[in-house]
Amino acid sequence: MNLHQLSLFAQVVKEGGFTAAAQVLKLPKSAVSAGVARLEADLGVKLLRRNNRHVSLTDEGAALYAHAAPALEALRESEAAVTEMRGALKGRIRITAPVGLGMQVLQPVVSRFLAQHPDTNVEAVFTMRVVDLVGEGFDLALRGGPLEDEDLIARQIGVGDASLFAAPSYLAQQGMPLSVADLAGRDFVLLKGCLHKHDEIYLTE
User: Fold this and answer.
1) What are the chain's domains?
2) Are the C-beta atoms of residues 25 and 11 closer than 8 Å to each other?
3) Which residues lie across from 140 on neighbouring strands?
């Protein structure tokens, strides 16, 4: 069954005739009539009794309209709802970020976002653990480093610096490194979590 032809039929019944339906739909009357005729041919039954003044439903047409009209209205409401959602941001957005980055960078951005889009609700989770973005239902994540999951989409929004720190006692014992090569074989403590999943670091000059 052709949905377009079904909607033409329903509009003819609603308006009480082909002329009125064509005016509402902004289509030629011949196009509306041809669409209904094709629907009748596909179903193998007459749906409407036609005369010069008005149309009336056959028993088959009445049965079809009784079932089709609510369904078509539901489709129109669904389309309107989706269109409205597309035009304005609504609903919940779940975001995760490392603790420091989240508190310093994301929190003020979220505050401005909520002021601009009051129908949204942002749930921000600041954590250093490795998060399963898909499994835990996150829409967005702030991360540093290369993308490790090819199923996700990444966009670079900034550049951050990373630093190495050493205690004076460590430097007194091991000596001050003067180049990247001097760091080879040195002991280090690596903060692991959502930004660092590996046991190695890679440095270049």
Assistant:
1) 3-87 (1.10.10.10)
2) yes
3) 95
